[in-house]
């Protein structure tokens, strides 16, 4: 067993007890993906993780650990359709596509080099449940085929919360959830996002602490429900959410 296999087996163990699929096949797929990240990550500026422990914990563990306290329907059955906004290297979208093979996963990305990597990963992993949506979140959110469609929308390291909300919530179906990840205590960021939450149709943010693996620093998963439709004008045109985040009456 290689070092990566050994570490990955340890990281995955808590999440495989309730897993119904082929556990060995899942482990093998995660190993292939992590080796792709290790080998190609530096060239495409995808991730700084090279060490086996870092890869297993920060890529796989960090995506799966928050699921232990996910909303009940997601925890027990998994989502039907998932959108990963600003997917980058496929984090966490590809991790979830492998874990939930019955879920239709869409990876939204605009960077050419990252898109190239995503296409190679999908082919190498034989992921028939994954599609790539090329372009900007501000544009595709106004297309009816994507708007308010997904029961889970994820984002990792996308933007501060008020900006991420405007880019993600228009894609989220009523009663669906947005999931985003934060390192430090997000209380101030959540307060800063109150206007955006109300404006875009979100409910109360449920902040859950987690550890990507035993002994790892505390992190925070933000589960955000969609309770009403997002007004048609959002998201605003390309670049505006980042330049003028939703924080008050002038937005």
Comma- or semicolon-separated keywords:
251 residues; alpha/beta; Rossmann fold; seven-stranded mixed sheet; globular
Describe the structure.
This protein has 251 residues and is an alpha/beta fold. The chain has one domain: Vaccinia Virus protein VP39 (Rossmann fold, 3-Layer(aba) Sandwich). 42% of the residues lie in helices and 19% in strands. The chain has a seven-stranded mixed beta sheet. Strand 6 and strand 7 form a beta hairpin. Helix 1 packs across helix 2 (23-44). The protein is globular. The N and C termini lie far apart (55 Å). The mean pLDDT is 94.
Task: Let me know the largest β-sheet.
Answer: 7 strands, mixed
Assembly form of the protein: single chain
Rg calculated over all Cα atoms:
17 Å
Q: Which whole number gives the mean pLDDT? A: 94
CATH class: Alpha Beta
Helix count, per DSSP? Answer: 11
Please render the helix and strand layout as text.
Layout: H1 3-16, H2 23-44, H3 52-64, H4 72-77, E1 81-85, H5 93-99, E2 104-109, H6 112-125, E3 130-134, H7 137-140, E4 150-155, H8 161-168, E5 172-182, H9 187-192, H10 194-200, E6 206-211, E7 218-225, H11 240-243
Parallel strand pairs: 1-2, 1-4, 2-3, 4-5
Antiparallel strand pairs: 5-7, 6-7
Helix pairs in contact: 1-2, 1-3, 2-3, 2-6, 8-10
């Amino acid at each position: 067993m290689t070092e990566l296999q050994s570490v990955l087996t340890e990281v995955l163990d808590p999440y495989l007890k309730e897993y119904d699929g082929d556990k060995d096949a899942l482990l093998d797929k995660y190993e292939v993906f992590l080796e792709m990240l290790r080998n190609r990550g530096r060239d495409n500026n995808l991730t700084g993780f090279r060490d086996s422990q870092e890869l297993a914990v920060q890529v796989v563990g960090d995506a799966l650990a928050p699921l232990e306290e996910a909303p009940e329907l997601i925890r027990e059955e998994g989502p039907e359709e998932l959108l990963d906004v600003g997917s980058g290297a496929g984090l966490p979208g590809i991790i979830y596509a492998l874990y939930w093979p019955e879920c239709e996963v869409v990876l939204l990305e605009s960077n050419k080099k990252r898109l190239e990597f995503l296409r190679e990963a999908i082919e190498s992993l034989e992921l028939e449940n994954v599609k790539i949506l090329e372009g900007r979140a501000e544009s595709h959110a106004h297309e009816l085929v994507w708007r308010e469609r997904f029961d889970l929308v994820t984002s990792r390291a996308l933007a501060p919360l008020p900006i991420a909300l405007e880019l993600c919530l228009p894609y989220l179906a009523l009663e669906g959830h947005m999931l985003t990840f934060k390192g430090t205590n997000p209380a101030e960021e959540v307060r800063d996002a109150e206007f955006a939450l109300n404006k875009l149709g979100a409910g109360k943010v449920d902040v859950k602490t987690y550890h990507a693996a035993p002994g790892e620093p505390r992190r925070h998963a933000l589960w955000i429900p969609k309770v009403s439709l997002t007004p048609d004008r959002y998201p605003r045109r390309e670049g505006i959410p980042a330049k003028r985040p939703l924080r008050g009456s002038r937005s």
